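Example 3.2
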Amino acid sequence: VPDNWIYIQEGGVRVGRVQIFNNWSPYMVKDWRSTVWIGLEYFVNEGGDLWIMDDEDLIELGITEVEKIGMIRRADVLDGCVLRMPKAYPAYIGSYDQLHVVREFVEEIPNLFLIGRNGMHRYNNQDHSMLTAMLAVDNIVSGRTDKSNLWEVNLDGEYHEERK
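Structure, written as C-alpha cells:
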C-alpha cells in the first residue's frame, strides 16, 4: 500500500486511521525491507474508556480490530506500544474566536515562533505543520522577526496531499 495513512470506514471497529510508517520514511523502521510498522489511531476524549484502558488491553484491541478488517494476521505482529496524545486537535469552541488576541500578544515576542497544529492552535495537517517549522527556521536564520509567512500557510483551504 503506497499511502501514508488510511482512514478506516468499516463498522464494528473503533480504529479511525492506520498510519504506515514505512511510507513516511524507510528510516523510521529498523528493518523496512521485511517488516511494516503501522500505527493505529483512535480518536478519543481524555478520560474516556479507550483513554484509560490498560496499554496491553489497547494493544490487544488494535490487533483484534485490524485482523477483523483483514489488514494483518495476528501471528505476524512482532510488538506493540501505546502513545496517548492529549489535545491532538485544537478545540474551536469557547474563546477560540479570540485567538487573534493571543496571536497579537505573541507577535510582540521577537524570538517566539508558533508552529504546527498545537503551537498555532489551528488545524494544520502534518505537511502544513512541517512547513511552518521550516519557515520558522528560515526566519530565524535570516533574522526575520515578522511571522506573517507562518500564518499564511494553509489559508487557501486546498487539500495539498491530493494528487494532481
